[in-house]
Amino acid sequence: MMKRVQRISTKIGALSAVLMLASVLAVSAATAASTSADGGKVYFDNNKQYLFNNAWGKSSVSGWSQSVYYNNASDLGWVWNWPTTSGGVKGYPSIVSGWHWTDGYTAGSGFPTRIWDNKNINTSVTYNFASNTSGVYNMTYDLWLHDTNNAKYNSRPTDEIMVWLNNTNAGALGTYIETVSIGGSSWNVYKGYVDDGTGGGWNVFSYLRTANTNSIDLNLKNFADHAVYTKKWIANSKYISSVEFGTEVSSGSGQVNLSRWSLSVQ
Fold first, then answer.
1. With left for phi above 0 and alpha for psi between -120 and 50, is residue 156 left, alpha or beta?
2. Alpha-carbon distance 54 to 100, whole Å?
3. What is the DSSP letter of 91?
4. For the residues 144-168, what does the mean pLDDT come to?
5. How do residues 226-243 score in pLDDT, each as one tens digit?
6. What is the pLDDT of residues 58-85, one digit of tens each?
7. Which candidate, 80, 113, 109, places its Cα nearest to that of 97?
8. What is the DSSP letter of 224?
9. Residue 90 backbone zone (phi > 0: left; psi -120 to 50: alpha; other: beta)
10. 178-223 pLDDT, tens per residue?
11. Interior CA angle at 139 toward 255 and 101, to 5°?
12. DSSP secondary-structure letter at 229?
């Protein structure tokens, strides 16, 4: 009788282990996601953020490919191939938190946040490019600003603040202004303007780290404060509608993988 009980117990234990493994695999399968669709999105972090397969400059290139993927919080990124030597950004595969030519903002993201409310926008990232990555590209944060806290899909931004961590053969829009120290690093500052082709546009303020880095901790509020309070370029009544982080690609092919990523508004 004891042997029979032991055999049943062993079988139950083995079955439990199989069911547990199946559960883990099911969760992993449900978590992992990717898309190569133009404009495709992969949501994560309880839908506060999404990976955006943004190929907005595709009209001048044929035979291109680009995709984004999310395996888990320490394994996400994008892959691209833009077979061209023409200038201009073709794609910006990226993470979006908040607004991006959408009606409203990602729920729970903390955006929009008014500049004069003085909230921190803390971020941490560690990433690596695949060894065969080549061409013209960067790695940059993109902060979008509006006059309203109810931005729609057709709400033109008033300002854009970019924070470049990597610059590989690329160049910032506008004119070099100065070099400043923010967040313990040195940044070359550029000021430019985007004409959207409809009789309007917006200002672009770009901060290019003087030395490329693949790992950093920043409070993005510090860059907005420099543009608002030090340079007086932006009114403090405006709203930061969103933050993106991604790779602007002008040409070439490659892959980037993020092993550490966080963004919070507090």
1. beta
2. 11
3. B
4. 98
5. 999 999 999 999 999 999
6. 998 999 999 999 999 999 999 999 999 8
7. 109
8. H
9. alpha
10. 999 999 999 999 999 999 989 999 999 999 999 999 999 999 999 9
11. 100
12. I
Give the Cα separation of 96 and 106 in Å (integer): 9
What region does 253 belong to: left with phi over 0, alpha with psi -120 to 50, or beta? beta
* Residue 243: closest CA among 115, 123, 91: 123
CA–CA separation, 68 and 51 (whole Å): 6
- C-alpha 207/C-alpha 215 separation (Å) is 16
Using one digit for the tens of pLDDT, what is the confidence trace for 94-122? 999 999 999 999 999 999 999 999 999 99
Structure tokens at 184: 């313990």
Residue type, 162: M
**Tokens matching residue 51:** 């990976």
Q: What is the dihedral of CA 169, 174, 180, 182, to 10 degrees?
A: -80
Q: Which residue has the tokens 């990597």?
A: 166
Per-residue confidence (pLDDT) for residue 31, from 0 to 100: 66
In DSSP terms, which residues pair with 97 in a beta bridge?
A: 243
Instruction: Please check whether residue 50 is in contact with residue 35, taking contact to mean a CB–CB distance below 8 angstroms.
Output: no
Q: Burial-class residue 74 by CB neighbours within 10 Å (0-12, 13-18, 19+).
A: exposed
